[in-house]
Known about the structure:
It is a single chain. This protein is α/β, with parallel strands linked by helices. It has helices at about 5-20, 50-60, 60-75, 95-110, 140-155, 175-190, 205-220, 225-250, 265-270, 270-280, 330-345, 360-370, 410-415, 415-425, 450-470, 475-480, 490-500, 505-515, 515-540, 550-575; strands at about 35, 45-50, 80-85, 90-95, 125, 160-170, 260, 285-290, 305-310, 320, 350-355, 380-385, 385-390, 395, 435. The strands form four sheets. A five-stranded parallel sheet has the order 7-6-5-11-12, sandwiched between helices. The protein has a four-stranded antiparallel sheet with strand order 1-2-4-3. The chain has a three-stranded antiparallel sheet with strand order 8-9-10. Helix 1 crosses helix 3 (about 60-75). The chain is flat and about 85 Å long. The two termini are about 35 Å apart. The model has no long low-confidence stretch (mean pLDDT about 95). Belongs to the class-I aminoacyl-tRNA synthetase family. It comes from Rhodocista pekingensis. Monomer. GO terms for molecular function: arginine-tRNA ligase activity. It is found in: Cytoplasm.
Amino acid sequence: MNVFKDFEAKIKAALEELMADGSLPQGLDLSRVTVEPPRDPSHGDVSTNAAMVLAKPAGKPPRSIAEALVARLRGVADVTAAEVAGPGFVNLRMAPDYWCRRLSDVLVAGVTYGASTLGNGSRVNVEYVSANPTGPLHAAHARGAVVGDALAALLEKAGFEVTREYYINDAGAQVEVLGRSTYLRYREAVTGEEASIPAGLYPGEYLKEVGQAIAQRDGDRWLTAPEAEWLPVMRDYAVGMIMGWIKEDLASMNIHHDVFTSERALVQSGAVDAALQTLRDQDLIYVGVLEPPKGKKPDDWEPRPQTLFKATQFGDDVDRPLQKSDGSWTYFANDIAYHYDKVRRGTPTLIDVWGADHGGYVKRMEAAVKAVTGGAGMLDVKICQLVHLLENGQPVKMSKRAGTFVTLRDVMEAVGRDVVRFIMLTRRNDQTLEFDYAKVTEQSKDNPVFYVQYAHARCRSVLRHAEEAHPDWDISGPALAGVNLSRLSSPEEIELIRQMLSWPRQIEAAAEAHEPHRVAFYLYDLASAFHALWNKGKDDATLRFLIESDPDLTKARLALVKAVSIVIASGLQVMGVVPVEEMR
């Protein structure tokens, strides 16, 4: 149960009563009325904007509406104070017993606590990773992979039906380069002569494995064949083998996609022609000459007629080319077809997780989705900024196998899956992230992975000690939900409960904003509150969790500890991280 939704219902019921008795006009639209925590906790437990948003349609001053609403709410059960603040906000404070009773919601629900019906089964497509199949995944791919996967889990927790998708960029110049690079490694494997890799081709050691595999399968068959014959063989074999590595690396992070879509197959199916015909039918394609790009001197620019999409009609800066001089489609044309295909599959809400180098591509893609779907499709692009890999503040050396970067596998082997997943969510996706091997594995408050996991481990330790001391007690969540929770009365205990009961609202807010990092922030704050209570118990024996002389109080505090472990586990589940049972 979401306590803020609970009070939203009570506040709207009070407004309905005010409309019924003539204090407010009949038929006011209450959809903009919100209930949330006040920015300053000293102002109360919940706050509503009702008077502010209803003032104009009601034709009354906000404070007048607020005062009438406060008079109604003072009689609502569990409300101990109702006040008007500022120009017309209404702040409410609840009795401590209200929070204690609601703790049972957490205990009964278990790790499903926080699940919401916000999405109401609406379909969302989250496309993430989608790395070019030209080499192993690197550390920056790890960030996009985690952000996309956690976002998909977050949306599912909020009641959306999610499709996880990977777009295989297996068409265009980069895979032709891959094919030629692979051929050199194939020749090397057959002849035993070390290959010289020209500039512009892929130098990574990983392609030796691909070349050796082709040599083992085909022998010297391609040594004297013309490029037209060996290029598609080398290209397709390399793409297939590298995609196998990518899937293995993702699986090692517990990341699994529902759909893998091939760009090459999409183009060959005629999807680009179909999508662009939709734009032609709307008179959104024309032949024209673009102005010189900004920063280009006129003599550097060779104007020529091009097939253009009227992107400026949909918020882009310039109209965009759809066809190259050789008659083939641009990457942009292929991407229009791909996004059109996703929407036609029945998923109108699209979320793409892209790397930092794609920031300039967002406007045109958003414009294309609006145009090709007639406004029925919505695209939200999440740009993941760079990851700086460090070891005690010094840059980490590049991977020998990759040749030019640190692979995801290298990072996983250094610190483990759960550390990678957690740390990648400790910054907003659009902020640069520093990933220091030493700092992300140290046992300190400054390491959020350790701090949150330590809170869960401490909870489990308390519960284990209770089981050993009282083997006849049932300390399952549902059983503890039935104990006298009103025994929890210290300000620290009540504040901890309030933080836990805000978890459902955090899920909904993070899902609506498409911001999974909020989960990591929330868990750190919850862990901090729990550790603070633990430390107070070391100094004040009356605040300890296990009080031998008072079984009822002990059971109530075990319920509190159990609930903390549940909410942390629920949040870590969204992040794709396994909660630890103990720490040594």
